[in-house]
Design a protein that fits this description.
Layout (H helix, E strand, L loop, with lengths): L23 H7 L16 E2 L4 H8 L6 E7 L1 E2 L11 E2 L4 H18 L11 E9 L7 H14 L1 E2 L6 E6 L8 H8 L3 E7 L3 H7 L5 H14 L3 E8 L6 H14 L3 E6 L21 H17 L3 E4 L2 E3 L4 H7 L4 E3 L2 E3 L5 E5 L4 E6 L2 E7 L3 H11 L8 E7 L1 H16 L1 E3 H8 L3 H4 L1 H6 L1 H5 L3 E3 L3 E4 L7 H6 L7 H4 L7
Parallel strand pairs: 2-5, 2-15, 3-4, 5-6, 5-7, 7-8, 8-9, 9-10
Antiparallel strand pairs: 1-18, 10-12, 11-12, 13-14, 16-17, 17-18, 19-21, 20-21
Length: 486
């Protein structure tokens, strides 16, 4: 019998069927560059936005649809050499106050356009502060932002909503965690990357294991619902042995989630990485060993592999949502809030808004001065809005997005489900893609039959490769824009 939700797992909380199987030969065979699919189409398909389009999109969004809010804080006090983002390194506290004024101005611009039922404030189910270092905002500035948001939106209760913030543990004041929890934040993510001192020095991010442990202890005492830790493999001076020590030490701290990212060394594209000596980097073989060891260690410790670098305890909301077939993916990564429109605020932020039969993806300017100039101009001309780029998705895009996201979230696509949702015969429609997947089926990465396509344990680490087969935009002009899957 098939469950009501065809993507719900019948595999239990943790079983051998659910664990990813590390197969070095298969990884080497299929490891190629590809997107992380935080959207489909990906951000490479942005085009300049027509005048007035953002205004129309916000006015015409479904009034009953809940919101997920994202705030991009671009500032950091220290330059991490592995960084592949456009961050602004500054120690000027005044920068955060100036930037906060622009965020509030942008919130006002967008909020005035949102229609709601009965004149009530729009409902917010999820909020995330990323960057950069969001806690670059001083405690009193965080309070100012949060209190202003309460006047513009209706937030779900602490038990129902998901309110998270990325934290650099080195940048916390003595009271910051308590301030955040008292405001309503219930989830935090800590950038740790590695605990080995020689690695930390090489990437200019030095902190002790004791500091991380103290932050986690305080966060638990304050009642944060979930704690994530970021690690990176492939950093200078890392070895399989030292990373294994870091992973085991982190497991002792028992975070609810872990993100284990592959370091892609691209100094020609990212200026900060030029500080890293290529001779200090581990070999590709050593990186594969690190990955295999990390996967085995985390799964043996009871963590569930979610997909694309992410692990979670079996009782974490992400793991539960995956087993129930309710996991989603957007610009914030894996999420349980798939029914939300995403509204982004700040330089480079991205919004994702459903509108009738279309979905729009919009992005603000990635240059801080240009973003601020746009917000300034909008104060005097209501026709000006922050977004400078847009993607309008077609029904064909929505179909392929549905396939790609279910492969990445649930390791499965159900042909009957697709046929009912999109009014097609999936096998006929995707006959070319199914043919391309033949080699993966022979290698036992996937299993295909008349019911659908399932990613097998040996293929779970290569789920992006399976998804890429269904990407119509992934042509030669884009391939050098992505890092390798592993």
């Amino acid at each position: 019998m098939q469950p009501d939700n065809p993507y719900a797992s019948t595999r239990g909380s943790i079983t051998s069927k659910q664990l990813p199987a590390f197969d070095e030969a298969m990884i080497q065979k299929y490891n190629r560059s590809g997107p992380r699919y935080t959207s489909y189409p990906t951000a490479l398909e942005f085009t300049p936005i027509p005048v007035d389009l953002e205004t129309k999109i916000l006015k015409n969004r479904e009034a009953r649809a809940p919101l997920s809010l994202y705030f991009h804080i671009p500032f950091c006090r220290h330059l991490c050499y592995y960084c592949a983002c456009n961050k602004i390194i500054t120690k000027k506290n005044s920068d955060s106050g100036d930037y906060l004024e622009y965020l509030i101005a942008e919130i006002k611009l967008k909020r005035r356009l949102l229609t709601t039922e009965g004149g009530k404030n729009p409902v917010v189910k999820q909020l995330h502060l990323g960057g950069g270092t969001p806690t670059f905002l001083r405690d009193e500035e965080m309070v100012q932002l949060w209190e202003f948001l309460q006047t513009q939106f209706e937030f779900l209760s602490d038990d129902e909503g998901d309110y998270s913030i990325e934290i650099d543990p080195r940048e916390l004041s003595g009271n910051t965690l308590k301030v955040l929890r008292d405001l309503g934040f219930n989830r935090i993510s800590l950038g740790v990357q590695d605990l080995e001192e020689s690695v930390q020095i090489a990437v200019n991010r030095v902190h002790s294991a004791e500091l991380i442990e103290n932050v986690l202890t305080e966060a638990r005492e304050l009642g944060f619902h979930s704690i994530n830790i970021d690690l990176i493999y492939g950093l200078p001076h890392q070895t399989p042995e030292t990373l294994e020590q870091t992973v085991r030490r982190i497991i002792e701290m028992a975070p609810d989630r872990l993100s284990v990212f592959n370091y892609a060394h691209l100094p020609e594209r990212f200026k900060a990485q030029r500080q890293i000596k290529e001779a200090d980097l581990p070999s590709p073989a050593a990186k594969l060993t690190m990955l295999g060891n990390t996967i085995n260690t985390l799964t043996e410790a009871g963590y569930q592999y979610i997909g694309i670098d992410h692990f979670a305890k079996p009782d974490d909301e992400l793991a539960v949502a995956q087993r129930e077939g309710k996991l989603h993916r957007n610009f914030q990564g894996y999420t349980i809030m798939g029914d939300c429109d995403l509204l982004g605020f700040g330089v480079s932020s991205i919004s994702q808004i459903a509108n009738a039969n279309s979905r729009y993806i919009l992005q603000n300017d990635t240059d801080l001065q240009a973003y601020q100039a746009t917000i300034d101009a909008a104060q005097h001309n209501l026709a000006i809005m922050p977004a400078v780029k847009v993607i309008k998705t077609s029904i064909k895009d929505r179909l392929r997005e549905y396939v790609i996201m279910n492969l990445l979230c649930h390791d499965y696509i159900d042909f009957k489900d697709i046929n009912q949702k999109f009014g097609i015969d999936a096998i006929t429609y995707f006959i070319d893609e199914i043919a391309q997947l033949g080699a993966m089926q022979e290698d036992r990465l996937i299993d295909m039959d008349a019911a659908g396509i399932r990613v097998l344990p040996k293929g779970r680490l290569l789920g992006r490769n399976v998804a890429m087969v269904f990407d119509e935009y992934l042509d030669k002009k884009h391939k050098n824009r992505f890092s390798k899957v592993i």
